[in-house]
Amino acid sequence: MHDETPIIPGNDVQSAEYKAASRRLNRKMDVALLPFLSLLYLFNGLDRSNVGNAETQGFSRDIGATPDDLNLAVSLFFITFVLFQPPSAAVGRWLGAKHWINLMMVGWGIFTIGHAFIRGRSALIAMRLMIGAFEAGFYPTAVAYLSTFYCRYDLAVRLALFYGQYAIAGAFSGSIAFGVFHLKGTRLHNWQYLFILEGALTIAMAITAWFWLPTSPETAWFLNASERTFAAARIATDNGDVHLHEHSTGTTDKKRLTKRDVTETAKDWKTWFILFFNICASVPSQAFSVFLPLVVQGLGYSSIRANLMSVPPYICGAIGLYLFALSSDHRKERGYHIVGGIGVALIGLIITVACHTSHAQYAGLCILLFGSYVSAPLTVAWLSGNTPEPGKRSLVLGVNGLGNLAGVIGSQLYKKRYAPRYLTPFYATLGFVAAALAGYVAYRLTLEAVNSRKRARLARMTSEEVEVERVGETRYADRKWTFVYGL
Question: In three state form, how does the secondary structure of 33-56 look?
Fold first, then answer.
């Protein structure tokens, strides 16, 4: 693509020229933007999960707390993490994703380092509350940011690579912990070095991100002038027959967030319906992001080796997510792919609780995590693609972040009193996952019925009525008869 011959999408979106230009644009973003943003999310996962690694070395004992205090602190982390997600996502929309991402990272990096020097139960709880508050808006802000660069059926596989860092973070944290915990003759406890190292790296990455991340596609340093024009225009086309906010040249929406965005999000049944089942589906991934090393230790591994043996299940989770997301984008289908991932997780849970040998139980954990990470990012891609208004999309993704309440459930389930097999927590998790399976099937079938109703309504409308509906204000964004939900 040359600067003097920009390709502006319109009615030619199926043309070979358009598709080739779009692929070239995606490749540039895949090289310059996606890997770096994914690396930032890796540190988000590291600083969330490292307390599980530290606990295998007696973290709670050394600071004058108990294992139950740690479970409580992890639960309270998710309280602030969940409650702050919608307002934090709104701040990200108002302030701009680039600026808010940097500020959040510096904040949680500082409090991660602070973990190395705390004493007592109250200090532990305070640190986890602050980590939760600063990490809360990162994921919805980053996803909303990516949705301004990629079209909706290019997004899921990118979100898989992005969200997959959450699984990779567990593996990476286990690997780092395995190395750090071999240090001998140090002035500090080994777990203190783990917090200091990971917190310092987070702050360093935040400073780098300030210079690396563009504000929007129109200002992307890795695109030429015609590509920037094309990038902005194809997103507008991808949103379909919906009248969107007015855009200002070269930056972002003139109206970043409106009162109607807030009210429409609050009364959107789809968001609240799927949120409940997203919580159920996320219990395994949220719980094991912290407690997998302790569960693996319960299979008979030493405290240091348990950190290393937690790596393969996390790798399985990343691989499963990527394969499901790749298929989801290729087939342009979300619902049944999510159901498939939940089904795999259910099989892994059954193997884990039904088998009695440590090798079979470990294999069950690998299968469980292979499917556990699928639902959350594909749900985000589903909601993002079905919410064309950028302001409402940011809020919907923020509300969807309430799915992290699964972390509160998981942290209360996987307590030390249930070690070594953790049968009661596993049975409870199985119940949550089974409920999620039924809920996602019902959600997809409901959207299919709504689409049929919309098509029937459009068939009775004249072309003039269709245009009035497209640009009118009576129904908003995805509620318009002209917008068809992706399934």
Answer: CHHHHHHHHHHHHHHHHHHHHHHC
Nearest-angstrom CA–CA distance, 371 and 98: 31
Both tokens assigned to 210? 């300030």
Per-residue pLDDT tens digits for 9-49:
444 666 788 888 888 999 999 999 988 998 898 888 877 77
- Of 223-237, 239-253, 421-435, which range is least confident? 239-253
pTM of the model: 0.74
> Which residues lie below 8 Å from residue 428, measured CB to CB, with a gap of 6+?
413
Q: Report the Cα 332 to chain-centroid distance in Å.
A: 20
pLDDT for 112:
94
**Quick check: 9 and 233 in contact, CB under 8 A?**
yes
**CA atoms of 134 and 138, how far apart (whole Å):** 8
**Share above pLDDT 70 across residues of the chain, in percent, rounded to a whole number:** 93
Strands (DSSP E) contained in 395-462 are none
Residue tagged 């749900």 (tokens): 379
8 Å CB contact between 111 and 134:
yes
Residue 293: per-residue pLDDT: 82
Delimit the domains of the chain by residue range: 33-479
CA–CA separation, 29 vs 457, rounded Å? Answer: 39
CATH of domain 33-479: 1.20.1250.20
d(CA 113, CA 108): 9
